[in-house]
Amino acid sequence: MSSAGDGGDGVAADEVVLEITDSSSLSSTSTPPPPPIPISALDGPLPSPSVAVRADRSRLIESSSYFRILLGGSFSESGSGYVQISCNLEATVQVLRYLFEPPAITHENFLPLLEGALFLAVENLLVDCERWFRTMGSHSSSMLVPLDFIIEVWYFAQMHGVTFVEDVCPGYLAQNFVQVISSRSFAQIPYDLLCSTIECPHLTVDSEKQLCEAILFWLSASIRPYEQLVPNSADSQLFLLSKVRVCLLPLGFAAGIKRNWVEFGNSAVCMILNLLKISFQALLGTDADDSLNSYRIRLTEHSKEIVLSGCPQLTTEILYISVLPTDLDAVFKRRIVSSYSQVDLESLVFYNELGKKVKTLSFKNVCMVDLSKCPNVHVDAAIYWLKLAFPELRTFRASHCLLFQFEDLQYLLLTCPWIKEVDLSIDMSIILPKYSIISSRFEARSEMNRNLSSYYKQSPYGYRTPIYPVFSRLSKLTLEGRNDITDNNLAELSMLDKSLCYINIKHCTLLTDNGISIFLLNCTKIHSMVLSYTSFGNQSIQTLCSFIYLDPSDSFPYHKDEGPYAMASRLRELHLEGCKGICCAGMSQLVSNLNIVKSLCLRQTSLTDGALCNFVGSSLGYLDISETVVSMVSLAPIIRRSSNLSCLKTTGCRNLLAEHGEVQSVNGNKYGGFLQEITSTCCLEDVELGWAFSPVRIDDLIPSFSKVRNMTVGLGTTIPENILHALPEICPFLESLVLRFQVISDSVVRNLLESSMNLQVLCLQYCLGSLTSFGFQTKAPALSILRLQWVTPWMTNDDLTILTHNYNLVELCLSGCKLLDSSSQEIITSGWPNLTCLNLEECGQITVDGVSSIFSCKALEDVLLRHTGRGIGRTIITDAIRELPLLRQLALDLCDASEGGYDTPNNPEGKMMRSVRMSRCKSARSCFDPRVEVSSSSKPVHKETIVLEWTSKQLRTTVVEERL
User: Fold this and answer.
1) Over the stretch 792-851, which tens digit does the pLDDT of each residue have?
2) Which residues, other chains included, contact 533 with Cβ-Cβ below 8 Å and sequence gap of 6+?
3) 893-931, pLDDT tens digit by residue?
4) pLDDT at 662 (0 to 100)
5) How far apart are the first and last CA of the chain?
6) Is a pLDDT exceeding 50 seen at residue 936?
């Protein structure tokens, strides 16, 4: 007798031939039976619609209840050597292979195996399928199977009552939800599966915004006439949206929801604003314990990132509610949360006593927490929260948290020494060294609270640990815009010399060249520095270019010979924009030592051809030499050597047009023009170009510009209309386009909006041409930032309404639209409720009746109103801070003040306000008779700007001659 599955012309005594016909391919016409094949032949392509297979009768009877009855019971087939069955051909073949030559179960064969096991009643296979599926569902590190597979299995399980699939799928999708929502198949998830997933306690998202976006996307995609995914769409919307913890949504996002989901968006904004008005302590006393869950941040054992950015309603109490055990007594829970919201010595003692009584939840997989734009979270209490909840935290972001002081940074590094990256950037000061300052005075912020680090050092528990423990791992620190950081602070940061590799102190204007030099002398492991608009100068350059010896513990891949080297030779990133303290000789010395730099910004510096010719590196990917005097003599060799150059910025470089620069070309080599060099060598992604950029044919820019995403074209060139019209073809991935002093037309703008599917930013500044409203009468779903400065004087309220229908903007800048009136406010704010930036200059009479409508845009962060109508009240500053929780920058003009001026608060009610600018004009005098004033209809002449600028500790009031 042949062994089971072996071939042969006849049929052995214990063998049976199964003729399996696919039930989906039954036909009335008779066909000759297929020749029998062994089990081993089932690996290849199957004949259709039937196949005959030789198999061991005993094995079939032993393994399958179906065959036990069919072949071993009273049916006529029990004594036959040839049996015909009709079923799912693929599923049955997979089962036969499993019974005789078991394959590994994968997502590709799982469903046929499961279907076949159910049909043929193969109990062992059902057990194996369940075991595999549950094991697969227990993995949370990443999605092991495609979402399409999960959806298909779910539908199958619903039809056949496979309960273990219904048990596993919601939890699996919940813990991998971040990956699930990025799948193209997300919109195809069945309603009941989505509901079960969202209700699962293991639901893991980076933020509540991420969950809300996913639900809104699913609801929008599921409203299709040909597919009814939900029995009652209205009820399904309400149920799904009720699962969103609205109080944890960013205010700007909630405001944006109103554009398409008016009722839900209004409800969300109202709830957030109410939280800002009502003390959370009051909520703790009135809400039932169960209702506190709606304030809990979604934290699970699978969480990796926690993003709470843009939530001004977020408080310290909410942070601690989220990490307290859910089974804790409600009264004790309220006492704990209430105590954590206080920051004093008594609370510090309570924290330590509390740690012995209550074990807060710990989330070891969380590696990043973002508390940016959360002004109502007490900084030091938040740091203690980080210590309790996230023992493996690596990245902490708190940008635009103005009250975060340097002492708080010290406390952070002391409390959480395992953190590797910290971002504390704020808006840069608008006062640059080049401006003429008339007067300046300083006042301390009156609402300053003592920070916990000072209590920490007074604690009776004896915390005498140095501010920067030697085991601190901080490698990347961003302090951009913090112009209250001093040389002494920087000296304390130099204690991080064993770990710090990246420092960003852009616009830290109190730092001196000597302070920066001392810092660099200590922190020799730094390879990336952003020092723009600081006093970085010749002394710091001498430090960078001085030879030092390699630290034996250094893991840097270069200088393995351990010989002396210059620190500058190890730099990978160096940004010196606006550093005016560098002489030509110092610049030449510095550039000659930058051997492996990949990102170099020397915009608005003393860079010359002589210095740039000394650059010998070939690794550049980013180069910004804008507003310098370099020419092609020095730039061309760098472009040729830098095969990886993807970002090039040369605006304002007039000498690029010159044939000869300050020095002769190196080695007598001859170089082509600017356009010829960049198109023959580079494959650019980010460009800012002006002088010497003069393409004539479309082919001039292909393929070197085929990957460009961000493009700025400025003064010094005029791009032909055929090139502008073809930009969507030349740059198919274009996301941002800025055109200054160009000639544009309706056809150019309309084609850009229609054809550039990824276009998010469009800025037209001081452009000429026959542009009308027709150019904007087309939709551009991706466009979010629109700046039209002195290009649309014809714009009316009707044109503005068209813009609101076609674009979903978060930033709008209009200049010179003199036909707009007070009704324009309502059009703007109702059409774009999620605006974060609104700049209106010389725009008719928009504010002649006040600014009440503007205050309805609750997400505004930056507002400029200049020459827009004399109707702005005296209390505009305090009103704006109170009504706009995220407002950081406000610019006004005294010409628009209805009462002649504005009240200026020392202690702003809001905690995010960075600067207020008030421009003042003077009446123009006749050039023929200085005693005669020009008529009021003429353009006002600027006189000065009053600037109020807050730091973490003080208010600085400055009067500047320039118009800022």
Assistant:
1) 999 999 999 999 999 999 999 999 999 999 999 999 999 999 999 999 999 999 999 999
2) 428, 432, 433, 506, 507, 509, 577, 578, 579
3) 999 999 989 988 866 666 889 999 999 887 654 444 544
4) 41
5) 98
6) no
* C-beta of residue 573 within 8 angstroms of C-beta of residue 597: yes
- Residue that has been written with the tokens 């500790």 in this structure: 953
**Contact (CB, 8 A) for 625 and 607:** yes
H or E element: which one contains 921?
A: strand 915-922
In the DSSP assignment, the letter for residue 41 is: G
As a whole number of angstroms, the distance between CA 233 and CA 879 comes to: 41
Q: Which of 684, 521, 504 is nearest to 577 (CA)?
A: 504
- Taking only the tens place, the pLDDT of each residue in 82-130 is 888 888 888 888 888 888 878 888 888 899 889 888 888 888 889 999 9
Q: Phi and psi of 438, rounded to 5°?
A: -85, -45
Residue 359: HSE in the Cβ half-sphere, 13 Å Cα cutoff: 3
Alpha-carbon gap, residue 658 to 652, rounded angstroms: 13
Q: How far is 548 from 562, CA to CA, in rounded Å?
A: 10
Q: Which residues contact 939 (CB under 8 A, 6 or more apart)?
A: 924
| Core vs surface per residue 111-133: b (16+ CB within 10 A) or e | bbbbbbbbbbbbeebbebbbebb
53, 128, 195, 269 from 856: Cα distances, Å: 74, 60, 34, 11
Query: Which pLDDT score is estimated for 222?
Result: 67
* 828/809 Cα distance (integer angstroms): 10
- What are φ and ψ of residue 918, in 5° steps? -130, 105
**Phi-psi region at 571: left, alpha or beta (left = phi > 0; alpha = psi -120 to 50):** beta
Residue 224 pLDDT > 60? no
| C-alpha distances out from residue 193 to 142, 157, 167, 209, Å | 19, 12, 11, 20
CA dist 111 → 106, 108, 124 (Å): 9, 7, 15
Q: What is the 3-state secondary structure (H, E, C) of 796-865?
A: CHHHHHHHHHHCCCCEEEEECCCCCCCHHHHHHHHHCCCCCEEEEECCCCCCCCCCCCHHHCCCCCEEEE
How many residues in the chain?
964
The span from the CA of 880 to the CA of 746, in Å, is 37
Residue corresponding to tokens 């492996």: 596
**Element (DSSP H or E) covering residue 253:** helix 251-257
* Residue 486 near residue 511 (C-beta atoms within 8 A): yes
Q: Outline where DSSP puts E strands in 339-487.
A: 368-370, 395-397, 421-423, 437-444, 476-478
CB 579 within 8 A of CB 633: no
Model confidence, pTM: 0.88
User: 276, exposed or middle or buried, with CB in 10 Å at 0-12, 13-18, 19+?
Assistant: middle
Q: What is the pLDDT of residue 835?
A: 97
| Segments in 546-696 forming alpha helices (H) | 584-592, 609-612, 632-641, 674-681
Please name the amino acid found at residue 939. K
Average pLDDT, the chain: 84
pLDDT, tens digit, 9 for 90 and up, residues 347-379: 555 555 555 555 678 899 999 999 999 999 988
> Alpha-carbon distance 341 to 20, whole Å?
72
Helix (H, G, I), strand (E, B) or coil at 705: coil
Q: Report which listed range, 422-436, 461-475, 750-764, is most confident.
A: 750-764
Question: Residue 196 gets which letter from DSSP?
Answer: H
- How far is 139 from 134, CA to CA, in rounded Å? 9
pLDDT at 759: 97
Measuring CA to CA, which residue among 366, 346, 365, 362 is closest to residue 354?
346
Rounded Cα–Cα distance for residues 659 and 668 (Å)? 14
| DSSP result, 724-738 | HHTHHHH-TT--EEE
Compute the distance between CA of residue 70 and CA of residue 277 in angstroms, rounded to an integer: 75
889 and 915 in contact (C-beta within 8 Å)?
A: yes
